[in-house]
Amino acid sequence: MAVIAVAGTPGAPGATTSALALLLAWPLTPGRRVLLAECDPDGGAILAGALEGRVEAVYGLRNLAVADRRGRLAEELWDQLVDLSPDGSADRLLLPGLTDPAQAVGLAYTWEPLVEAFHALEHHGYDVIMDLGRSGAHGSSAALARRADGGLLTVRSTLRGLNSARPRLAALREDLDTSGTGADALGLLLVQEGPYPAADVSRELGAPVIGLLPHAPRTARVLSDGGESTDRRFVRSELMRAARSAADEVRVLVGRRRVRLAPQGQPADPAGRQTAPAAPPRPFVPQAPAPEPLPSPGPMSPPMSPPMSPPVPSPGPPPGPWTPPPSDFTTAAAGPSPWVPQPPLPPGWTTPGPQPQPQTAFTATAAGPSPWPPPPPPPQGLTPDGPLPTPPAPRPAPPSPFPGTAPAPGTAAPDGEEVLRAR
């Protein structure tokens, strides 16, 4: 249903005793449970008081500080609870408090996650009562009072009790107005020890009186120092009957606040008995378009392979400078080796004899050795390698002895000199 905070004032007004009385008198419907958490930074008192040391101080709030650092606060919380139900049904549980006030320093960053874990217990059917003691509503643990659905300040109706409660109540009201959910969550749990009636106390302190607890030291000693809490006289005592009435009023207070704080359009139970709220709708998140389904292969068909793309030819070497095609003489002499360029012939120099058709560069390089018959040997006087000799100045050729014929090489000319010697 709710998370209730019970705080005290200086002078020991009985905040822990009142919180334990609410735990034992809390009305439970089928499937509901109630949990009392000792969140007093000054330390817990129930293990050594009401339980008379029958439970070892190995469980409790101090272990949750380590669990919070490990991110396991919600999981470890269940392992720290002690069953206080008379019949062992685990419907009235206790979270023991600190054993040393120095341990409160390690909980400075755990109070906020702890109250969040308490609110999450509502979905499991739990109501939570937090005992804040005299100093739990201020300082680093102020988040417990700010996040509570209802807050009860235990006050004695004596002059000393009312005088100490006034500044504490004013500071708590201001803190709830600025950092909490509003001061309308505050109420008074009045212990009728002094002569001041509830109406006067409510008017002077400016807060409604939610519950009236009688001043019954003998019955209250069972809650503070131990005793038989299952005895019929204790169960039917005036203090426990008043605690049951106060619990009903707290439920009404929480129900009214939930109606006020509920979002517009969301129903709330005015009696505070609403079940776990429905999960809020998830915000819209844009999704990427779903890919088209591929045809499923047969039971024995091999997996589909991606389509093969045509091979891309690798880039060849960059084109070099153009070279002239080789001549027949070079191709015949050097064979398939690359053509070696030769210096050009001097002007006017001609080579006798027929010249074969020169090969192209593509034929010489791509086709290898020419399949043609080997060309005729080079003319005399020409060397395939080395520089050519400087020829003499040209002179007119002598007339041939017979018309249409040329003198044979090595024969004498009319002037008595051989052509080869002249050359």
How would the blueprint of this fold be written?
Blueprint: E1 3-7, H1 15-25, E2 33-38, H2 62-69, H3 73-77, E3 82-83, E4 92-95, H4 111-120, E5 126-133, H5 142-146, E6 150-156, H6 159-179, E7 186-192, H7 198-205, E8 209-214, H8 217-225, H9 232-235, H10 238-261, H11 328-334, H12 361-366, H13 419-422
Parallel strand pairs: 1-5, 1-6, 2-4, 2-5, 6-7, 7-8
Antiparallel strand pairs: 3-4
Helix pairs in contact: 1-10
Overall strand count? 8
Helical content stands at 25-40%
Cα radius of gyration in angstroms: 56 Å
User: Sheet bearing the most strands, described?
Assistant: 8 strands, mixed
Task: Quickly name the level 1 CATH class of the domain at 3-261.
Answer: Alpha Beta
Tell me the β content: 5-15%
Report the order of strands and helices. EHEHHEEHEHEHEHEHHHHHH
Observed structural traits:
423 residues; Rossmann fold; 11% strand; alpha/beta; 8-stranded mixed β-sheet; disordered C terminus; single chain; 29% helix
What does it look like?
By secondary structure, the protein is of the alpha/beta class. The chain has a domain at 3-261: 3-Layer(aba) Sandwich (Rossmann fold), CATH 3.40.50. The chain contains 13 helices and eight strands. The protein has helices at 15-25, 62-69, 73-77, 111-120, 142-146, 159-179, 198-205, 217-225, 232-235, 238-261, 328-334, 361-366, 419-422; strands at 3-7, 33-38, 82-83, 92-95, 126-133, 150-156, 186-192, 209-214. It has an eight-stranded mixed beta sheet, with helices on both faces. Helix 1 crosses helix 10. The longest helix has 24 residues, at 238-261. It starts with a strand and ends with a helix.
